[in-house]
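Example: Antibiotic biosynthesis monooxygenase.
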Amino acid sequence: MTRRTEQHPDPTDSRIGAPVFSTWRVGTPERQRQAAEAIGRTWERRPWPTAGLLGYHVYAGQDGSTLMHYSQWSSGQAFEAFVKVHRQERVDEIDTAVPGIERVGLTRYRRYRSREWAAGETRVPGHVVTVRIDFEAGDEGRREEWADLVLKAVEDDPEGHAGLLSAHFHLSADGGHVLNYAEWESAEAYDRALAAPLTDAWERVRAYPGLAGFTGSRYTHVLGLLPA
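Written out as structure tokens, the predicted fold is:
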């Protein structure tokens, strides 16, 4: 069966072979709540679909309009089998409960690197931020080096990033971008980091060759589903 959890996911779980992120546009904060409730009901009334799905988490965008989905798969094959057999019936039930959901995009990734600053502590993430970093065609090979540069900038500027609990860098399967899934102690801590003066290391991150653009989004974890 399926059970709910309030715990945030662990992106470093060694069993994860294919993390998948997707976005739905639902329109309003009320529809965010309704859609998340519909997802929970739809999944709880069904058996957990496969041992290849380790966890499924939903986040409400602070834009009041979107939901982000983060599912942890043992392999790409497990995800593809789920799509063929189990996905559509769940989508249909959710769409009946909340008509008009726009599914903006779905991307498969490989986690490249993580850094946790609160390992062993009891602090719970109060704010989740994702940053998508796109690279120009032909510069995809720079993704790992850029992620390494970001972590070096954070390490060299701990005061400017107080409240950052973890950062997890994922490389898109198509080779085009990096997704940083970062957990913060609070929205206020993230705002303070944004307002901090840029160090030389952060200037190098922003001016790195081959970067095509950044897109940041802010979320609150609203639903976690695990096998019972």
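The first helix runs from residue 29 to 44.
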